[in-house]
Design brief:
Helices cover 58% and strands 18% of the residues. It is α+β, with helices and mostly antiparallel strands. The chain folds into 2 domains: 188 residues, no CATH class; 122 residues, no CATH class.
């Protein structure tokens, strides 16, 4: 058994050396597979990233009773500004009546309302806290609490009017009130239904495109596997002439198939994420679209496993078929 294992390892080492010398012509095959893997990665990551913003839109649509206007009206005056931290835009809000503002937004807070020199933070800003303080324009603010919900305030900083004025932000002033007869307010009917319908259509379209890409990837894997298996014929004949058994050849080729598939999928993953990051940055800078942050998700892992399996099975089956023909 030990001798057989050693023989398999030597055969695998020999085949890897042959592949490295270009005898199997792997470069083109790996690049072709990687290209389709990258397209699948871009589709999956971008769709997941944008659909993750759906709860924010739903939350806004669920609250049609909230009216916002730049024109003075009987309601709560709210000062709105923003800053950019680590490529993220953070809302800065201040009001002389924070209790009413938070009540209008049905906010769930942990802690107390901020006084002078304090800040109430959205939960997503917790990583930016150092020693219970949050630094804003060089001023260290004591964190008075956190906003757990709603989603649209999860990346916001809420300040007392006095703190906001001390920081000297440029801002826009809006007036908020509950629903009433106000001509500046207009809302499309059934906003929530519209958002859900659009999201459902997007998911269907993404799913259809994903199936097309998976089918194309499977076909490419088969074509490239056939090409690699054909190129390996000369090497396999030589090894058989040197008394290598067909079983040992098949086992060694299986290991080679796994390595080739792993390299192709890893390269496709890298190309997909790099291309997505660059294109998303360009769209964010020039067109103001949200920047896509690639995150690991079940959907992404599932696509990677599918790509690896398709490539590995195609190579293994066609390698085995080539050995049987000898």
């Amino acid at each position: 058994m030990g001798f057989s294992l050693l023989k398999n390892l030597r055969l695998t080492q020999f085949m890897l050396a042959a592949a490295a010398r270009g005898e199997f012509k792997l470069t083109q095959s790996i690049l072709a597979t990687a290209l389709f893997v990258s397209l699948l990665i871009v589709l999956t990551v971008s769709s997941q990233a944008y659909l993750s913003q759906l709860p924010i839109l739903e939350e806004i649509a669920i609250k049609p009773a909230l009216i916002a206007s730049k024109e003075p009206l009987k309601g709560i005056a709210i000062k709105i500004s923003y800053i950019k931290l680590n490529s993220n835009f953070i809302l800065i809000l201040a009001s002389s009546n924070l209790t009413a503002f938070l009540k209008l937004n049905q906010a769930n807070i942990d802690g107390k309302l901020p006084s002078f020199g304090e800040a109430l933070l959205g939960v997503k800003l917790k990583p930016l806290i150092e020693n219970s303080t949050f630094t804003l324009k060089g001023l260290n603010l004591k964190v008075s609490g956190f906003i757990n919900s709603p989603e649209h305030l999860s990346s916001a900083v809420i300040l007392a009017d006095s703190t906001f004025e001390k920081l000297n932000f440029s801002y826009e002033c809006f007036y908020l009130k509950e629903e009433g007869d106000f001509q500046a307010f207009a809302q499309a009917p059934s906003s929530l239904s519209l958002i859900k319908a659009v999201a459902s259509e997007i998911l269907k379209m993404v799913s259809s495109i994903a199936w097309v890409l998976r089918s194309a990837l499977t076909l490419i894997c088969l074509m490239q596997a056939y090409s690699i298996a054909k190129e390996s014929r000369k090497t396999l004949k030589m090894l058989l002439a040197l008394n290598a058994s067909k079983i040992n050849l098949t086992l060694s080729l299986t290991i080679l198939a796994l390595l080739i598939s792993g390299i192709a999928v890893a390269l496709g993953y890298a190309i997909g994420l790099t291309g997505l990051a660059l294109s998303s940055s360009a769209l964010s800078i020039f067109y103001g679209l949200p920047y896509i942050k690639p995150l690991a998700s079940y959907a992404l892992i599932k696509e990677l496993i599918f790509a690896l399996t398709a490539s590995f099975l195609a190579l293994t089956i066609l390698f085995a078929n080539e050995v049987l023909k000898l």
